Amino acid sequence: MATVNENYLKLPGNYLFSTIGKKVREYEAAHPESRIIRLGIGDVTQPIAPSVIEALHRAVDEMGQAETFRGYAPDLGYEFLRETIAEQDYRSRGCDISADEIFVSDGAKSDCSNIQEIFGADNAIAVCDPVYPVYVDSNVMAGRTGTYSSETGTWSDVIYMPCTAENDFVAELPKEAPDLIYLCYPNNPTGASITKERLQAWVDYAIANGAILLYDAAYEAYISDPALPHSIYECKGARGCAIEFRSFSKNAGFTGLRLGFTVIPKELKAGGQALHPLWARRHGTKYNGAPYIIQRAGEAVYSEQGRQEVRQQVAAYMKNASYLRTELLAAGYEVYGGENAPYIWLKTPKGMKSWDFFDYLLEQANVVGTPGAGFGPSGEHYFRLTAFGTYENSVEAIRRIKAL
Ligand SMILES: Cc1ncc(COP(=O)(O)O)c(C=O)c1O
Questions:
Q1: Which CA distances in Å does 262 have to 48, 108, 291, 367, 390?
Q2: 108, 125, 165, 389: which one has the fewest Cβ atoms less than 10 Å from its Cβ?
Q3: 13-47+305-402: what CATH class?
Q4: How far is the CA of 332 from the centre of ligand 1 (A)?
């Protein structure tokens, strides 16, 4: 008799955004006249940049001609894209990363959830709290997290590293001994960034303790402070202890096109075994490559014109972030993030629980955000707003929040 992977049955409730979506749909059905402003889910709203669209058109035309038609893409990505990434994202910033250490994929979500497959089932994982839920849930599915306590909202075998206002939302080095450590900066959900010194401390810790850092840099394009690191490979020794995930979703609006990549340096090892060939093997077996036309679109993001255009998109979102941050601070809210990240992380007023504040904002202001508790226990009493809406909606949301 067939049976299921029982680890899936351990996953509590619905995925955070499904729960939010359901609540909003129910509210809208009951109040059809309401005009809801969505500053909850981290999806972009601006259209794809013109030079990327041109590259897509060109690639589509190539697919229609026998001479230029492309079938299966190379498993690890086309050379034209891997070489461009290595040069522009890494070597130009002084990071020693070569094209064959880059694995092109359909996005960072799949990579950062699939990466755990190449590690032993008994590896202990450590995550920031609050955290992007995918890191934990993918390990739950793999049976690495022990049992769930609905009282504390935590898993028995996961090491949680609280990120609070007291530590500037940057995790302290753990006293336990994790094998795999997930870090994400600029951070979703807190909007925090990490300094080079603190990131170097993590690299030194990982090297000293034989741990692997899984560094999610999906929001690196939002860094405005020139002193902050864009890649973990800006730190000394990171090639020996870190994997990095990148995405085209937030820097170039590819949430619907789908493109990302993972970097695994050749010398990176776990238990004496190199990880690069394992991930290459996994890619080769389970993945047939990101579409040619999308990889051409990704390449166009790095052209001179493309870079200018996506920089303008990011600037527009950061204008929203700055507006939300400034206005909420002026209205007396305790506000974090929004300076090097497209997320605003605010303390709920009067000690309200974060789901109560969600209901309150939805019902009284018709504004949707994300309750901090959905990202982990340390997210309780916090609330996330995103800068990915339009400027007009950001202004209207603030007007409504101020009127409460
Ligand atoms: C921290 C983080 N990593 C990864 C992703 C997913 O990126 P992608 O669209 O490339 O799958 C997101 C999406 O919101 C994210 O917030």
A1: 23, 8, 16, 35, 30
A2: 165
A3: alpha beta
A4: 31
Rounded distance, CA 36 to CA 156, Å?
A: 38
Tell me how far apart the alpha carbons of residues 291 and 190 are, in angstroms, rounded to a whole number: 33
β-pairing, 242-247 vs 212-216, is parallel
325 CB less than 6 Å from ligand 1?
no
Give the end-to-end CA distance of the chain in Å, rounded to a whole number: 57
Amino acid type, 255: T
For a pocket test of ligand 1, which of 188, 246, 370, 384 has the largest count of ligand atoms closer than 8 A to its C-beta?
A: 188
Q: Per-residue pLDDT tens for 128-156?
A: 999 999 999 999 999 999 999 988 999 99
User: For ligand 1, atom 2, which residue shows the shortest CA distance?
Assistant: 218
Domain ranges of the chain: 13-47+305-402, 72-303
Mean pLDDT of the chain, nearest integer: 96
Q: How far is the C-alpha of 127 from the C-alpha of 323, rounded, in Å?
A: 30
Cα-to-centroid distance, 109 and ligand 1 (Å): 5
**Ligand 1: centre distance to CA 330 (Å):** 31
Q: What does pTM read for this prediction? A: 0.97
Q: Which ligand 1 atom sits closest to the C-alpha of 247?
A: 10
Q: Give the C-alpha separation, 75 to 250, whole Å.
A: 24
Tell me the fold of 72-303: Aspartate Aminotransferase; domain 2 (3.40.640)
Whether 13-47+305-402 shares its CATH topology with 72-303 is answered no
Give CB contacts under 8 A, 24+ apart, made by 170-177. 170/194, 170/198, 171/128, 173/201, 173/202, 173/205, 174/126, 176/124, 176/126, 177/124, 177/209, 177/211
Statement: residue 18 has pLDDT above 90:
no
Verify whether ligand 1 is closer than 6 Å to residue 108 (CB atom): yes
Q: Which phi and psi (to 5°) does residue 383 adopt?
A: -150, 140
